[in-house]
Design a protein that fits this description.
Layout lengths: L1 H9 L1 H33 L4 H49 L3 H6 L2 H26 L1 H16 L1 H48 L1 H7 L2 H53 L5 H42 L18 E8 L10 E8 L4 E5 L6 H8 L7 E6 L2 E2 L5 H6 L1 E4 L8 E2 H5 L8 H10 L15 E2 L8 H14 L4 E5 L7 H12 L6 E6 L2 H4 L4 E6 L2 E6 L1 H7 L1 H16 L1
Parallel strand pairs: 3-10, 3-11, 6-9, 9-10
Antiparallel strand pairs: 1-2, 1-4, 4-5, 7-8, 11-12
Helix pairs in contact: 2-3, 2-6, 2-10, 3-5, 5-7, 5-10, 6-7, 6-10, 7-9, 7-10, 9-10, 14-15, 18-19
């Protein structure tokens, strides 16, 4: 209910108006059988055509009034449910944008897509139903029982028995259905995740020719979804005919008992006719109630899943101070292990510092913790112990947005988005003029932009599929340069560039217009040699720190890297 409270307060006026319309519509429907009995008892049996016309006209007026209320509640329910759905999707998206890395690791992206689409649609359907039929069904059912009791108490005892049996059937249906529908949504998660995984790796699948394996895995999760769907619908398939049977049997009993009562003048034709109509209304309302509980069970599962998203841990606290820092970085005895991982520390007792305006290269074997330093510096994760300082501020005392506004990162795997080249570059600075885009592109050696059909207005496919790996990296570097932040992190961002182009990019970064700290995470010794300082990592620990010449004298690991890469290439 906590999830719905926020939106209920926002739309309470149209909601209550719709509820009023539903109630009045149900009242009009309930008056129909009673008016019909008046037509039979007062008009037809007494041979009074005037009474038939009078009660008939009144019945027609009530029916038209009910239709007007039905149109009004349909309009209101559609507008409110769709607006609530739009707000819910927006709130979910904003929440996901502020997910901590721990939360992002806990819920797969495929599951998040299912929750934002299928689960949200289920809630929209539920809200729409509440305002259209869910409230009408119990009013119609209870009202039919009350009015039938007023007409003939003896016959109404049959209705009480029918309602009692149906209540038991609905309760059993709910108990069995909920876990099945929850499993159905999880099965849908797995299908979405598998499709997303294939689409992201479609080129690799084609390259290795693993279509049969991928098809087999998809058929497996798809078959599982089918089985869960059949299992969840099986309860409804069995319960619905049973409800119809019970109410139908009740109608037969009403007609039989009514005929016996009619024979001894304890019931008249109009009452029996009205009772038959009320039984039909009760059948309709009970079927609606069954559907209500079925949708409620599905919605309960969807509500739990969406609430799990809203309950997820958010990124670090945000700040509106907007401090501009100089770019001095200090790590003091930092230790960190990834949450939910093996428990082994990715970084252990790490201490080093970089002055503002200096360049630092971080080098070491694969898995030595180089990229982890980037995630810690950006506060995607917080260190388990020790301190990380930006200038003289412990980054835990700064808002996550404040930290990231002072850092530009160029990731190892460049991520571009559908849109124009200019729109992708302006992620670095949304107000950048065209000449600023050109300067950033020139520094990143992205001259190929002008060779594209529409230059900076050329459209890129999602993920930059119409660019080569080297072109993506250069655009990503240009975007980082354009941010003009005090700290620029290049996380192996030049791996797809040839040595000449990479050297030109590094040289352009040295000719800075402002005092910028540049951190280069690299596998190449040639790249590291150009930096003011070099941090050598091994198994999450600092194996060496200093200039190239200092490390050549004091760090055995760095010496091995140098001899393997530089001297071997010279000999070749």
């Amino acid at each position: 209910m906590k999830l719905y409270g926020k939106y209920f307060r926002r739309y309470k006026t149209p909601f209550f108006t719709a509820v009023l319309c539903v109630t009045l519509e149900a009242v009009c429907d309930l008056l129909g059988p009673t008016l019909m009995s008046r037509i039979v008892n007062s008009g037809i049996e007494n041979g009074s055509l005037t009474k038939v016309y009078y009660w008939g006209a009144l019945m027609l007026l009530v029916t038209l009034t009910g239709a007007c209320f039905a149109v009004a509640r349909n309009i209101l329910s559609s507008r409110v449910s769709q607006k609530m759905g739009a707000d819910l999707r927006t709130d979910l998206f904003e929440k996901i944008m502020y997910f901590s890395e721990v939360s992002a690791d806990e819920i797969e992206s495929g599951s998040l897509i299912t929750r934002m689409t299928n689960d949200t649609s289920q809630i929209i359907q539920f809200v729409n139903g509440v305002m259209r039929i869910f409230l009408k069904a119990p009013i119609l059912c209870i009202g039919s029982i009350v009015l039938a009791s007023l007409l003939n108490l003896r016959l109404s005892l049959i209705i009480y028995g029918v309602v009692a049996v149906v209540t038991v059937l609905i309760y059993i249906s709910m108990k069995i259905s909920y876990p099945r529908f929850y499993q159905l949504q999880k099965a849908m998660d797995r299908v979405n995740s598998k499709v997303q995984e294939y689409l992201m790796g479609v080129r690799l699948v084609k390259a290795f020719g693993t279509f049969e394996k991928e098809t087999g895995q998809f058929e497996e999760v798809n078959s599982n979804l089918m089985q869960k769907g059949i299992s969840s619908q099986m309860v409804i398939t069995v319960i619905s005919p049973l409800l119809t049977l019970v109410v139908g049997a009740g109608t037969v009993i009403v007609i039989y008992i009514g005929s016996r009562l009619f024979a001894v003048d304890l019931a008249n034709t109009g009452d029996i006719t009205a009772f038959t109509i009320y039984m039909a209304q009760i059948l309709t309302s009970l079927i609606m109630i069954t559907n209500v509980f079925t949708i409620f069970v599905r919605t309960k599962a969807s509500t739990v899943r969406i609430s799990e998203v809203f309950d997820c841990e958010e990124d670090c606290e945000r700040s509106d101070k907007g401090r501009k820092l100089s770019g001095e970085i200090t790590f003091e005895d930092v230790t960190f292990a990834y949450p939910g991982g093996s428990g082994a520390a990715a970084v252990s007792d790490l201490t080093f510092s970089v002055n503002s305006g200096e360049s630092l290269a971080i080098i070491g074997p694969t898995g030595s913790g180089k990229s982890t330093l980037t995630w810690l510096l950006l506060r995607f994760y917080d260190a388990d112990s020790g301190r990380i300082l930006l200038d003289d501020y412990d980054i835990k005392t700064l808002g996550a947005d404040e930290v990231r506004s002072n850092i530009a990162v160029v990731p190892q795997k460049p991520m571009l988005f559908s849109g124009t080249v200019a729109e992708n570059l302006r992620w670095g600075d949304k107000h950048a003029a065209i000449d600023e885009l050109q300067q950033a592109a020139k520094k990143a050696q992205a001259d190929f932009i002008m060779e594209m059909t529409d230059g900076y207005d050329s459209l890129l496919g999602s993920g930059g599929v119409n660019l080569s790996g080297g072109q993506k990296q250069r655009l990503s570097i240009a975007r980082g340069i354009l941010k003009k932040s005090p700290v620029l992190i290049l996380d192996d961002a030049t791996s797809a560039l040839d040595a000449v182009t990479e050297a030109k990019v590094r040289e352009n970064l040295k000719n800075k217009e402002f005092n910028q700290t540049v951190i280069m995470i690299t596998q190449r010794c040639g790249t590291a040699m150009s930096a003011d300082k070099i941090l050598v990592m091994e198994n999450g620990r600092k194996a060496g720190f200093g200039t190239h010449w200092e490390l050549m004298e004091s760090c055995e690991i760095y010496q091995d890297i140098y001899h393997t890469q530089i001297e071997s290439s010279r000999e070749a």
